[in-house]
Every structure is written in C-alpha cells, then in structure tokens.
Amino acid sequence: MKYFAVRWVHSDPEYPVLRLGEYDGGGWEQRKIDVYRDGRVGFADAHEERDAELALVPMPGLEEIAAETESAPLEITRAEFERLWEQRRAGGAYWKAALLTTTRGNSLRG
7, 3, 23: which is closest to 75 by C-alpha? Predict the structure, then answer.
C-alpha cells in the first residue's frame, strides 16, 4: 500500500483542498479523506461513505499529479495515514488546524 496527501490550491468551496488516500499496488483507492477549506470532511472506504466516494480510476503517480494540477502531493507513512483516518469523524476544528499546518508548507507529520 501507498499513502498520499495532496493539497490543492484553488478557491472553489465545492472541492476539497486536501485529500489523504490509501492506494493499493495498482493505484486503486482503498480509503480516502477529503478535507474542505471550511473544515468539512468526507471519507470513504469499501464499507462506508460520507460525502466522498472511492475513485473509479486508478491514481496516477505523484509526479503526474503535480504536473497536471495546482497541487502539492506528498507521500506519507501508513502510521501517519492511520492517525488521520482515526480522526476522520473529528470536528472541523481538528481539520482546520490540519489545513493550517499544510498551508504553511509543513507536512501532516505533527
């Protein structure tokens, strides 16, 4: 499995500004968390979906994502992803703090 955090630079409130994902060897999403600028959170896995769905196509590599979008992709560890996955139902204050951390150029490793 691989774990990614992708921060998108845009101003549309309908789209997430941070996506955290777990991907199998073929690039297929297994779990994901979408975080919106206002702190809203959507998430999905094979058993549950809340304001998010697993992708219908495999994820491209980080280099391709960075080249095609206004984003800052980062590979994270399984432990980092699991810590964030456990917080997926946390309130907006937790996720607003996570967004503030990533917009300052830091990773989610805090």
Answer: 3
In contact, 7 and 107? CB cutoff 8 Å:
no
Long-range contacts of the stretch 75-82 (C-beta < 8 A, 24+) = 75/2, 75/3, 75/4, 76/3, 76/4, 76/5, 76/20, 76/107, 76/108, 76/109, 77/3, 78/1, 78/3, 80/3, 80/108, 80/109, 81/3, 81/20, 81/22, 81/31
pLDDT digits (tens, 9 = 90+) for 47-106: 999 999 999 999 887 778 777 777 778 899 999 999 999 988 886 777 777 766 654 445
Contacts for 6 with CB less than 8 Å, ≥ 6 apart: 18, 19, 20, 21, 65, 71, 72, 73, 74
pTM of the model: 0.82
Q: Are strands 18-23 and 29-35 parallel, antiparallel or unpaired?
A: antiparallel
